[in-house]
């Protein structure tokens, strides 16, 4: 059965789908506050009426003005209204990417404008209307779902995550290519123009949850969260790329080979994998969802620096995260430095 999303009022769930939702659209030196303002103004050739609608304080006022001047609506309006609507809805989403992420996140669901007042743009309230606005929104969604940066992940939901360091807001995403579930833990308020402190942390069940001393992951995770809270704001991206992308069971196989003398790179290769199988391209989608273009990146790993730069993210600072050196992982850390290029101070891996 096809799932349906019904929308109508801009302040309700899925209100961003409504033409009444606040979504500034810049066209030829003019900024339309909503797609409704633009749509209603296109009915008229009289520039004073167009200006009055543009300046209407609310989309509802813009709508009422079009009714007031109904006798002056241009003669071909009924022929062009569909393409006008299609154009402005497309522009609304092209120019308001946060809404586009939310639109793409509706997946395959049927979008219906549940309007008892309109059986052309909406469903007429009884489901028998044409729902032309819903059809346009689904067309726009299909288009953007294949475009950068929307094609990588879809956002599912968000909730509070209290931790020993402070309360984060946790955002859940699904990577479209793999179905993997990734997280962004946001602390504090991310301010435009202030690059946040971030960490791209790859899943390590053994280190992050089971206190393993074989690696440095758990130690880095704690320090990264603490640093973010101390900085006042930032984001920890928790990426489900267990075992440098080979998965948990293969990581156990790799550990077994390391118990018998292989180093971490040789073990991966003996199992038929590259030393590091991770791909960070999908991070573009999560960063864009959070409106992040510049960052301070906590990492020792040059591949993460390169991956973010390739994704078009500006790294204003790299913050070293040298944690947890102990007798069980000193060989592993040395191999990370010598074979994988990790940037450690010589005093850290002595
Ligand atoms: N394949 C593999 N072999 C090992 O010996 C390992 N210790 C790991 N650990 C995984 O590496 C990732 C963290 O590395 P970075 O610090 O981000 O470079 C994480 O996915 C661990 O599970 N993997
Ligand atoms: Zn680990």
TrEMBL record:
Its cofactor is Zn(2+). The keyword GTP-binding applies. Binds 1 zinc ion per subunit. GO terms for molecular function: GTP cyclohydrolase II activity. It is an enzyme of class 3 (hydrolase). It comes from the Bacteria. Residues 158-319 form the GTP cyclohydrolase II domain. It catalyses: 2,5-diamino-6-hydroxy-4-(5-phosphoribosylamino)-pyrimidine + H2O = 2,5,6-triamino-4-hydroxypyrimidine + D-ribose 5-phosphate; GTP + 4 H2O = 2,5-diamino-6-hydroxy-4-(5-phosphoribosylamino)-pyrimidine + formate + 2 phosphate + 3 H(+); 5-amino-6-(5-phospho-D-ribosylamino)uracil + H2O = 5,6-diaminouracil + D-ribose 5-phosphate. Pfam families: GTP_cyclohydro2, NADAR. Gene3D superfamilies: GTP cyclohydrolase II, YbiA-like. GTP binds at residues 199-203, 220, 242-244, 264, 299, 304. Residues 7-142 form the NADAR domain. Its EC number is 3.5.4.25. The active site is at 276 (proton acceptor), 278 (nucleophile). Keywords: GTP-binding, Hydrolase, Metal-binding, Nucleotide-binding, Riboflavin biosynthesis, Zinc. Pathway: Cofactor biosynthesis; riboflavin biosynthesis; 5-amino-6-(D-ribitylamino)uracil from GTP: step 1/4. The keyword Cell inner membrane does not apply. Zn(2+) binds at residues 204, 215, 217. Catalyzes the conversion of GTP to 2,5-diamino-6-ribosylamino-4(3H)-pyrimidinone 5'-phosphate (DARP), formate and pyrophosphate. Belongs to the GTP cyclohydrolase II family. PANTHER family: 3,4-DIHYDROXY-2-BUTANONE 4-PHOSPHATE SYNTHASE, GTP CYCLOHYDROLASE II-RELATED. This is GTP cyclohydrolase-2.
């Amino acid at each position: 059965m096809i799932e349906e999303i019904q929308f109508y009022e801009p302040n309700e769930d899925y209100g961003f789908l409504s033409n009444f939702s606040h979504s500034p659209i810049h066209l030829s030196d003019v900024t339309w506050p909503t797609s409704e303002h633009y749509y209603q103004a296109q009915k008229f050739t009289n520039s004073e009426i167009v200006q009055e609608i543009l300046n209407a304080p609310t989309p509802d006022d813009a709508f009422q003005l079009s009714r007031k001047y109904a006798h002056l609506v241009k003669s071909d309006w009924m022929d062009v209204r569909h393409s006008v609507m299609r154009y402005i809805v497309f522009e609304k989403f092209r120019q308001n990417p946060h809404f586009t992420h939310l639109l793409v996140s509706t997946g395959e669901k049927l979008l219906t404008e549940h309007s008892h007042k309109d059986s052309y743009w909406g469903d007429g309230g009884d489901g028998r209307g044409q729902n032309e606005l819903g059809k346009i929104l689904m067309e726009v969604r299909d288009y953007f779902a294949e475009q950068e940066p929307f094609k990588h992940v879809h956002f599912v939901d968000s909730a509070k995550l209290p931790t020993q360091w402070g309360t984060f807001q946790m955002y859940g995403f699904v990577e479209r290519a793999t179905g993997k579930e990734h997280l962004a833990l946001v602390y504090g308020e991310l301010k435009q123009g202030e690059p946040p402190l971030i960490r791209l942390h790859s899943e390590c069940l053994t280190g992050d949850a089971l206190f393993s001393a074989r690696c440095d992951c758990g130690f880095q995770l704690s320090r990264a969260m603490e640093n973010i809270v101390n900085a006042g704001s930032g984001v920890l991206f928790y990426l489900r790329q267990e075992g440098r992308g080979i998965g948990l069971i293969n990581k156990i196989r790799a550990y077994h080979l390391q118990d018998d003398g292989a180093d971490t790179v040789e073990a991966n290769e003996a199992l038929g994998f590259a030393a590091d199988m991770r791909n960070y391209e999908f991070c573009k989608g999560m960063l864009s969802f959070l409106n992040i273009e510049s960052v301070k990146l906590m990492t020792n790993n040059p591949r993460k620096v390169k991956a973010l730069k390739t994704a078009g993210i500006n790294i204003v600072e790299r913050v070293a995260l040298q944690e947890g050196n102990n007798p069980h992982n000193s060989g592993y850390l040395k191999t990370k430095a010598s074979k994988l290029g990790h940037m450690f101070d010589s005093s850290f891996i002595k």
